[in-house]
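I'm curious: can you give me some protein's one-letter sequence along with its backbone structure tokens because I've never seen that pairing?
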Amino acid sequence: MKRLLFCLALAGCTLDGAVEDERPDTCGASGYQSLIGQPIAAVTLPADLNMRIVGPGDIVTMEYDASRLNFETDEMGVIQRVTCG
């Protein structure tokens, strides 16, 4: 009986559905989501855009800049993710 109560209590601790990233879109990343899947070399971006391109294994600074746009690419230079930071 104790095991059943423990299992029921534990089942109540599960997440219902996916957890979404709730950080505010302070850099306008939502406006660049359509670029996912495209080669970064083929994309034209504004010259004054506060951004960085990060590939696999790249060394990056760890400070968070809410106004900076991050383009994360795969080994082939294809955009996989666009985030603020």
About this structure: The chain has one domain: 24-84. The first helix runs from residue 2 to 11. The helical segments are 2-11. Strands lie at 51-54, 69-73, 79-84.
